Amino acid sequence: MTEAQKEQERLKKLKAMEDNKKKEEEKKMRNAVGKWKDLPTLEAENSNDMVEVDETRQPCSLVFIGHVDAGKSTISGNLMFAMGVVDKRTIEKYKEEAK
User: Which of 19, 23, 74, 98 to pair with 55, CA 20 to 30 A apart?
Assistant: First the structure.
């Protein structure tokens, strides 16, 4: 086997290792997202509807630390939207205001 062939084999092995690592990370993300999707949202169909609190779960406190313009508010807003705390109409309203 020539040096060039050995180098190609080494590169193939490295690429396979990187692909496996990416697949594992994607799998972890899918599992995490799946867990978030299973949680009940706080958004009610009608503003008069009541949402029952799941007392089997503990509350979670989050702290976002970062430099100015690092996206702290953006990530917290996206989390609130994903959990159903903020409805789509409010998001659309703010998008129009931002334009």
Answer: 74
